Amino acid sequence: MFLSSIKKVLVLSVIIIFGMLFTVSSVSAQTEMDMWTFVNAHAEFYEMMAENWNQENPDRAITLNTQVLPFNQMHDKLNIALQTGMGAPDIVDIEIGKFPGILENNAETLVDLSSVIDEYRDDILEARLAPYSTPDNKVYGIPTHVGTYLMYYNVDMLEEAGVSIDDIETWDDYLEAGKKVSKDTDGDGENDQFMLAVPSEEASAFDGMSRQLGSNYFDQDGNVILDREENIRTLKRLKDYVYKYEIADVVTDYHEQNFYNALNNEKYASIFMPQWYMIRFTDFMPDLKGKIRVRPLPAWPNGEGTLSTMGGGTGTAVTQEASDVELAKEFLAYAKLTREAGVKIWTDLGFDPIVTDAYNDESFQEKFPYFGNEKVMLTIQDLQSEIQPLYFSDLLTRLRDQLNEETLYEIFENGGDVEKNIKEAAEKLRAEQ
User: Fold this and answer.
1) 336: which DSSP letter?
2) Beta strands in 138-193 (DSSP E)
3) What angle do helix axes 204-212 and 229-243 make, rounded to 10 degrees?
4) What φ, ψ does residue 380 adopt, rounded to 5°?
5) 3.40.190.10, 3.40.50.2300, 1.10.150.20, 3.40.50.280: which CATH number matches 31-146+312-365?
6) What pLDDT is recorded for position 123?
7) Element (H or E) spanning 63, and its range?
8) 303 versus 247: which is more confidently predicted?
9) Rounded to two decimals, what is the model's pTM?
10) What is the DSSP string of 68-85?
């Protein structure tokens, strides 16, 4: 009897030990992946998607170790790691402005993601892939959002001036509305309320209008096209808004607290920026709740161009140092290209996804009290067909510096000649190609 009890205990112990070993083995079977980003919310998003992936793919589970680093530090660290072949993460977020240079210098150390993207091409906005692709159509980064350009109107200011925002169909209509809205409120003889602010040290306004015309910085082959006629027209129009018609004020940029305060205090009746600027409104301009309406950009005269474009962005890449390249690719596609991912990019990050079917989810039908209780995402959905590809080259950082530090400042702050300044900038950049 005693020996029988001992046998039972021994058998039970063996079962428990094997069970523990099996559990340890299952955990250790997970593939570890390091992921770098410069945005806390992105890290949280990927961690959530890794949990979902593991639930749906227990036999291919991953342990995702996310690391959030300061913007410049992360991109510098990534460049060094890719160039030396040591210390790169499995997966990494790369900001759109940094992507072309990193890709140009390190294409052999990043992974072509075309094979996993091909499975989803019919269900995504393909034009958004262009900034993260090579001229031979290999894709090295998967976008986080579209960044649909929108016009944000302060409807109270416009209605007070007798303007209905739905009567603004073209940029000429916009100018006429601006003449009614812009005025001198303190009696000093100069306007201090405006239709628009034009930045002199960042290119958001220029980008939105020129990209409507299918132009901007580079063509598909990476050639500088900064001095194209469409770009000159855009800058002349913006400069005229400031100096000729006085419906626009000059500011440094759209991302400083002083500017948020000015919008919040109703110094400006409108601004056009990508969809992600909605978050700036709700976070930094509480007094505008219920006053802001979202609409397409005005059309260029004679129906030229489109009613929107794209702006900003992050491309997520896989490096050749990944512990399991194919698994990293498949997880990344799952986290950014599936319908579920598209919905969560909206519900958890607040961004307009590139996954077209996601817009059919009920969460996109939500009305926003801040934006006049309108279904904003339906407007954004309607604009997806207006988005054209956008091309960059490894000169993008240098070009941005040229525009932001010299060219735009000279045009908008000093009233410099548009054609002269933009052609000089283009020639400088071509000399570096």
Assistant:
1) H
2) 142-143, 149-154
3) 130
4) -65, -40
5) 3.40.190.10
6) 96
7) strand 62-68
8) 247
9) 0.91
10) E--HHHHHHHHHHHHHHT
